[in-house]
Amino acid sequence: MKNEGIEGTERFLSPDRGRGLRAVRHFAVGELVFACPAYSYVLTVNERGAHCEHCFTRKDDLYKCGKCKQAYYCNVDCQRGDWPMHKLECVAMCAYGENWCPSETVRLVARIIMKQCDMCHQRIVTELPFRPVSHAHKATWWPAAVWYHLYLDKMDNEKEEMNQADIAALHHFYSRHISDLPDEQALTELFAQVNCNGFTIEDEELSHLGSAVFPDVALMNHSCSPNVIVTYNGTVAEVRAVQEINPGEEIFNSYIDLLYPTEDRKERLLDSYFFTCQCTECTTKSKDNEKMEIRKLSSPPEPEEIRSMVRYAKNVIEEFRRAKHYKTPSELLEMCELSQEKMGTIFADTNVYMLHMMYQAMGVCLYMQDWDGAMSYGEKIIQPYSVHYPAYSLNVASMYLKLGRLYLGLERKTQGVKALKKALAIMEVAHGEDHHYVAEVKREIEEQK
């Protein structure tokens, strides 16, 4: 079945994976496979004033909404274009003032409901085209009831509390402005699909800009060795080849961060997407030894010592995730440093758990404007990243980009330009040569001549 609107691809039943997308012609590395406008999207609150609410353009001279004073636009055309969705929040923000605080997921779900109501659809959940949930069941579509039970079966106490809080927030902030909200089961189904199939729109440094639903992108199945990569041009998702793709080959995207070893990736995929990955990378575990490198010691650690340290690493990563909501930056940095010190007794600096905490420490340093500290961590991270991640990884490009900009800010011109050029080489493939992020980096390099 040829995929409507996506020339050069077709939908098909992928063996052991259910519905999928495959090429019907050759795609070269860096070639655009397809582009997909967002079905629904929302700009994150933290980027208001820096990006246009409608097209996500980053600029300084944005115009403020005259009613709520919180949404910003490039011009009148963008404001008018966004009004069918913004009117929902504009009225609520005016009514609640500083007490208006729904989560980003709640905001996105409200917009989906509003859009479907505007289009006079009778069903809210099951008509949304989302990616398959499981590779194991060979199904092309998961009915709402299956979604509901799968999601509930996988929900731990924390997720259930979050789900109930989201539904309560939707009612609290939007029930007066959406005349006919779905019942609780339908909302649980919708939140399940959005949590599983929603996409994070990111900038060139992988900073969070917003959340969206991209139906055609959701058609692709997962692989830990993907042959395409998804980037964003405003509110449009662009899918480009990062490997040669021949006619008849399935098109694979990655649903998760690929830094981690096989066991961690499988755990994350099972927890979030309800399937056990059987891709080549997961069956061969070809990169696991490098990713889990142990420090060379005169007396090598025992297997149980290594397993114990892995458990500690996973616990501290989760503890840090929670701590970001209540600890100060200084406390977070200390947490990173202490965990690295402990893990470093067994793990090499190139071990992915060490790299994870280095990356967190770099982020804290950037927030605290400790540029030397951030640069030091970036220099430790970049080479292992280049080994552990696949070719044309956005994680590697963003790290080179951050390092390049840090170097230039610290007046280390030669190193800065070199790092920016390495970022650019990846971005020209991943984003496309005509992307405005690519143009910005080229301009930064040109300014140093």
Q: Please, could you describe this protein's structure?
A:
- The protein is mainly α and 449 residues long.
- 48% of the residues lie in helices and 12% in strands.
- The chain has helices at residues 76-96, 104-118, 144-154, 157-174, 184-197, 262-273, 280-284, 288-291, 303-323, 329-343, 352-367, 371-388, 394-409, 413-430, 436-446, and strands at residues 9-14, 18-23, 32-37, 40-43, 63-64, 72-73, 199-202, 208-213, 221-222, 228-233, 236-241, 252-253.
- The strands form 5 sheets. It has a 3-stranded antiparallel β-sheet with strand order 3-11-10, with no helix packed on it. The chain has a 3-stranded antiparallel β-sheet with strand order 4-8-7, covered by helices on one side.
- The longest helix has 21 residues, at 76-96.
- The radius of gyration is 23 Å and the shape is globular.
- The protein starts with 8 loop residues before the first strand and ends with a helix.
- The model is unreliable at 121-127 and 129-145 (pLDDT under 50).
